[in-house]
Every structure is written in structure tokens, then in C-alpha cells.
Amino acid sequence: MKGLIVCRTGMGSSLMLKIKAQRIIDKHSWDIDLEHDVLSGLRTWQNIDFVITMSDLTDEVEAAGFRAIGITDLMNSEEMESALTSIVQNH
Question: How many Cβ atoms from other residues are within 10 Å of residue 52's Cβ?
């Protein structure tokens, strides 16, 4: 499975979300490859199973044709783990 994490600038929150998500993926030994990018670069990606972003950007991600997972609290590991578990179970 391949996931992409995006934020408006591709530097701050997407990188923090990627680090947090990667720790959870490693903990569960899930076969998920993660990348991160800027929101405006989203349309250049192909073969992405899901996109994780901050919840205020989910509409834009979905409008680009991707499955969006919105995170409301950047520091909440349980929210991220729940979102990733849902992705794995529904893939």
C-alpha cells in the first residue's frame, strides 16, 4: 500500500505527520510506503491508496480524486493510529 501525507507547504505538518505515521506503521509491521509533499503537488502523484492531511484540507484532497484521511490534532497519536488501522482494515 502507498500513502501520501500533504500539507499546504510540504514542510511542517506533513513531515511531522509522516514521522508519527511511520512510527505507527513500524509498530504494527504494516506494509505501507509513505511519502510527503506539498498540497499543490498532489496531482503529480499516481498509484496512491490514501492521503493523510490536516482535516481542513480534506475537501481539496478529495477534489483531486484521492481518498483523504483528515487529522484534527497533529499531536494525537491515537487519532493517527485509528486512521491508519481503518485504512489497513478496509484495503
Answer: 27
**SS3 letters across the chain:** CEEEEEECCCCCHHHHHHHHHHHHHHHHCCCCEEEEEEHHHHHHCCCCCEEEEEHHHHHHHHHCCCCEEEECCCCCHHHHHHHHHHHHHCC
User: What is the rounded average pLDDT of the residues 48-53?
Assistant: 95
The band of 4, judged by pLDDT with boundaries at 50, 70 and 90, is very high
What are the grid coordinates assigned to 39, written together? 498540497
Query: How far apart are the C-alpha atoms of 81 and 60, rounded to whole Å?
Result: 23
- pTM for the complete prediction? 0.90
Name residues whose C-beta falls within 8 Å of residue 36's C-beta, 6 or more positions apart in sequence.
4, 5, 6, 7, 10, 14, 15, 17, 18
